[in-house]
Amino acid sequence: MANTAQARKRARQADKQREHNASLRSELRTAIKKVAKAIESGDKAVARAVFIESTSTVDSIADKKIIHKNKAARHKSRLSAAIKAMA
């Protein structure tokens, strides 16, 4: 347990930031799942539209350093490749 006022405040700030980051990570996962679901549905046009929409979410979360920029690029690349592979 924090003993000083400064340490107590930093603990409060850390909790608040952790919750905020967790919500952003959840938003990221949801965006990726939306694209995956659109790919499974088989409609390439819809999948492409959802991918473009989700790309901005992934990029903004990477810009805030919630995830690494290379991880964001990897997710986008794999989803894009899956869309291109659709018949």
From TrEMBL:
UniProt KW keywords: Ribonucleoprotein, Ribosomal protein, RNA-binding, rRNA-binding
Compositionally biased spans, kind Basic and acidic residues: 12-25
Disordered: region residues: 1-25
Any one Pfam family match given in the protein's UniProt record, by short name: Ribosomal_S20p
UniProt KW Ribosomal protein keyword: yes
Transmembrane segments: none
GO BP: any one term: translation
Alphabetical list of InterPro entries matching this protein: Ribosomal_bS20, Ribosomal_bS20_sf
Presence of the UniProt keyword Ribonucleoprotein in the record: yes
GO molecular function, one term: structural constituent of ribosome
Superkingdom of origin organism: Bacteria
GO cellular component, one term: small ribosomal subunit
SUPFAM superfamilies, alphabetized: Ribosomal protein S20
Job of this protein: Binds directly to 16S ribosomal RNA.
Family named by the database record: Belongs to the bacterial ribosomal protein bS20 family.
Protein name (database record): Small ribosomal subunit protein bS20
Gene designation: rpsT
